[in-house]
Amino acid sequence: MRRVVVTGLGAVSAFGIGVDLLWSNFTRNACGILPLQSLDTSQLKITTGAEFSSFQPEAHMKKEHLLLADRNAQFALLAAQEAIDQAQLPLPPDAAIVTGCCVGGKHMEDAGYWDVYRESKSRVHPMTIPKVMANAAASLIAMEHGVLGPVFTLSTACSSANHAIGQAMWLVRNGVVEVALTGGSESPFVFGLLKAWEAMRVVSPDVCRPFSKDRRGMSLGEGAGMLLLESEEHARARGAKILGEVAGFGMSADAHHITQPKPEGAAAAMRMALRDAQMDAETIGYVNAHGTGTQANDPAECAALGMVFATHLHKLPVSSTKSMHGHALGAAGALEAVATIEALRRGMLPPTLGFESKDAECDIDMIPNLARPCSAEAALSNSFAFGGLNAVLAFRARA
Q: How far apart are CA 303 and CA 28, in angstroms?
């Protein structure tokens, strides 16, 4: 079985542009969930989020990308370039690009609705459809880098990026391509979508406190994460620096409820990822949890972890980086994959911020509030979506 390694990483988050900036904020236990700056929140109940408030696209984007790329796709282009630069490998024409996106170009969509329904305009911007489509990021990256191979986007709500990374890994493992760029992007901070999230009543009024008894819900985030994947043979032949290995991927469906999670479904995806990676549960030294901070998700995920890890769970560190970079929907799994690879590579586990009191239904070591040194050799990263769609990635520190 061909091994699939990571040779480049890229990230855009509430903290700014770059993996090093994301990681430094993790290790100093910083929270990117702050009052929203980009829109008027006077008519909203959601007033906080992990927003890249200082982003100036004109300073980073080509003119054609300002015209064709909505904010989420701009983030993807920047993260992709960082991953490519770190790998020191221009994307070959036969590479694959597989991205995840949940809601697509909401900034352009929201502006169009405003023009039609509030301003009574007879037409919207001519680039509305190209900018709102979920696959815009993948297509623009392909055009920017001349990629002619498999290019597509997966949209499975909050599991989108994990599904994308898993599919890209399988393409490389099975010899369809030698190189793949994969990840996810999202930018949900527009009035209409925030009103929709208000109606769900799952968003915290302040910050996200995963696994804490006093948790009050999730906090939305934005950004992008990208991974440059290669077959191990390809990477070693060119003398590339290997950052880690995507060792396994598992996915499942709950077939249970459109919004309420089922522990058995999450456990099935974790077991499949372990089986695909040919790992025992005891091999795992860290889990980057889905950890949304909602009343329903956290105990369900803890129950699923107990089903998979049994007594090993009591000595297994688990954290939710959503407590720092927010829940970035289609980009969440990508940012968390970056966090997990960096945790294994750097020997430091990011914390779960906001923990205040223990919940008996969340009896795990959630690395409360402070980053922790570690020597883990393998990790899982969980993503569980509305619709009951579960996607789990298994990573190794070294190929």
A: 30
**Amino acid identity of 374?**
C
Helix axis angle for 191-200 and 106-113, nearest 10°, is 100
- Show the CA angle centred on residue 88, arms to residues 82 and 94, nearest 5°: 95
Q: What is the DSSP letter of 211?
A: T
Catalytic residues: 158, 290, 327
Cβ atoms of residues 361 and 131 within 8 Å:
no
- The full set of domain ranges for the chain reads 4-237, 248-396
Question: CA nearest 71: which of 47, 85, 55, 48?
Answer: 55
Residue 226's SS3 state is strand
- Topology alike, domains 4-237 and 248-396: yes
At 54-92, the pLDDT tens digits run 999 999 999 999 999 999 999 999 999 999 999 999 999
Q: What pLDDT does 351 receive? A: 98
Strand-pair category, 151-154 with 348-349: unpaired
Which tokens hold the place of 299?
Answer: 């105990």
In angstroms, the CA 365 to CA 199 distance is 32
Burial classification of residue 280, based on how many CB atoms lie within 10 Å of its CB (0-12 exposed, 13-18 middle, 19 or more buried): exposed
Query: So what's the pLDDT on residue 86?
Result: 98
Tell me the CATH number for domain 248-396: 3.40.47.10
pLDDT of residue 253: 98
For the chain, which residues score pLDDT lower than 70?
A: 399
Q: 197-213 pLDDT, tens per residue? A: 999 999 999 999 999 99
Angle between helices 332-346 and 160-173 (to 10 degrees): 60
Most distant CA pair in the chain: distance in Å? 63
> Which residues have a Cβ under 8 Å from the Cβ of 104 and sit 6 or more positions away?
70, 72, 132, 133, 134, 136, 155
| Burial status of residue 80 (CB atoms within 10 A of its CB: 0-12, 13-18, 19 or more) | buried
d(CA 162, CA 336): 9
Superfamily grouping for domain 4-237 = Thiolase/Chalcone synthase (3.40.47.10)
Residue 260: which region, alpha, beta or left (left: phi > 0; alpha: psi -120 to 50)? beta
Rounded to 10 degrees, what is the CA torsion of 229, 233, 234, 240?
Answer: 80
Residue 100 host element (H or E): strand 96-100
Which residue(s) pair with 179 in the sheet? Answer: 230
